[in-house]
Design brief:
The chain contains four helices and no strands. It is mainly α. The protein has one domain. Its main location: membrane.
Amino acid sequence: MAWIVLIIAGLFEVVWASAMKQSHGFTRLWPSVVTISGMLVSFGLLSWSMKSLPLGTAYTVWTGIGAVGAFAIGILVLGESASPMRLVAALLIVSGLALMKLAGS
């Protein structure tokens, strides 16, 4: 169950990072509200998952999901560059997450 909660926490990290971009430095109300709400949910779920998962594993997976998810949103929604080198970098992050999960098993 802790892994499912951790994945959801990572997805909320993607939500708040994306909303933060749209908040324009916290000058727009609703994206700012979504950012802060998403942060609270994400941190809360991360904290809950750390009750049974090791700190290093939980934090690495959480930030990895957030990084790759924000990267994907940037490309798919915001029109950011999808250069081969950036795609390889994202693949390396996902590979590291898979190895972290396997190492914890």
